[in-house]
Amino acid sequence: MSTRSVFLLALAIAVAVQIGAQSTPSLKDTYKKSFLIGAAVNERQFSEQDARGAAIVKTQFNTITPENVLKWEAVHPQPDKYNFAPADQYVAFGEKNHMFIVGHTLIWHNQTPAWVFQNDKGQPLTRDQLLDRMREHILTVVGRYKGRIRGWDVVNEALDEDGTLRQTPWMKIIGPDYIEKAFEFAHEADRDAELYYNDYSLENESKRNGAVDLIKRLRERGVMVTGVGIQGHDNLTWPTPEQEDATIAAFASLGVKVMITELDIDVLPAAAKSGSADVSLKLASRPELNPYASSLPASVQRELAKRYADLFGVFLKHQDVVERVTFWGVTDADSWKNDWPIKGRTNYPLLFDRSGKPKPAFDAVVNVSNKN
Ligand code: GLA
């Protein structure tokens, strides 16, 4: 090909990309009057190494959450070593694109190294030692991004399915007040940051009731809890719109902000007990559990679109209290759902397909807003 034809071809591609981008509505504009629309982003996206993914994030979303880089194991891998470079880049990306930047997550039992709970001889820390370590971590991480990260998932997944406090190392060593301590330290580090409790399966009544009690207790004790994050790792039948509605209403009645923080809809046959999103779960692969390895049948594509429309209908009904709806990932190719709870499946949980194109579910989400 001559230099001229290469140039013309490149020009044609650039124009086509531009036209494509222009004709796709943006979620953030579509929902501008209702709530923020976000995505969890990975390093390849916020470093713009994945240029296509980064472009989708910039045009479609006005809030971002880091998929992994602010989890304890990533940002604080050893007692005296913080690894801030990726998180710095994440925050810079959000600022450059004028986004509401979320921090995820300060206190969790997963993706937290074992040393956190031990002294240098490998023995369990005492309550006071662990509280000191928690405070140091929170002041360092929240303090570094003070005024820039505007909302933090302070405590992630502290509840069991029955609504009681999960027996994590935090709970066992410090006791139930580890939760309020975490919120106090985060507030100490940045007085203006919004502080959230974040969990999955809150749509199930027993766990939801446990969360409602927890938030009430914290607020009665004067702890600054700004909002509750309903993770939203959903599937084609769970939660029902009624469950979603009741859950948002229950938290709204406490006077806290409500957020959908990790939305995705699993279309594959259930391999785990319904509603669970415990990342530590690992199950064996079986071919019948990976039925759409090459493509998603049109009927399931439609079912997924309808599910998204139904759920967004509920979010819109509660738009006065719902602050933000964040998807856990950008395209289907990026989703953790391809590897959880079985490695190597082909899942289709998000609004953009593996090539970055909006799916029928995307159109459905846009249309629900236009109807309201
Ligand atoms: C949980 C966590 C997230 C993420 C997802 C799955 O919901 O809160 O950080 O790990 O699991 O990736």
Can you put this structure into words, describing what you see?
- The chain is α/β, with parallel strands linked by helices and 372 residues long.
- It is globular, with a radius of gyration of 21 Å.
- Helices cover 41% and strands 14% of the residues.
- The mean pLDDT is 94.
- The protein has 13 helices and nine strands.
- The chain has a single domain, classed as Glycosidases (TIM Barrel), CATH 3.20.20.
- Strand 3 (100-107), helix 7 and strand 4 (151-156) form a beta-alpha-beta unit.
- Strands 1-2-3-4-5-6-8-9 form an eight-stranded parallel beta barrel, surrounded by five helices.
- Bound molecules: alpha-D-galactopyranose (GLA).
- Alpha-D-galactopyranose binds at residues 104, 156, 200, 231, 262, 277, 279, 336.
- Alpha-D-galactopyranose is lined by residues 104, 156, 200, 231, 262, 277, 279, 336.
Count of separate DSSP helical elements: 13
Distance between the termini: 52 Å
Estimate the strand proportion. Answer: 5-15%
Instruction: Write out the distinct hetero groups bound to the structure.
Output: alpha-D-galactopyranose
The pLDDT mean sits at 94
Helix and strand pattern: HHEHHEHHEHEHHEHEEHEHEH
Number of domains: 1
The count of strands amounts to 9
CATH architecture field? Alpha-Beta Barrel
Query: Which sequence of strands runs across the widest sheet?
Result: 1-2-3-4-5-6-8-9
Name the poorly predicted regions.
none
Percentage of helical residues? 40-55%
What attributes does this structure have?
9 strands; 372 residues; 8-stranded parallel beta barrel; binds alpha-D-galactopyranose; alpha/beta; TIM Barrel; 13 helices
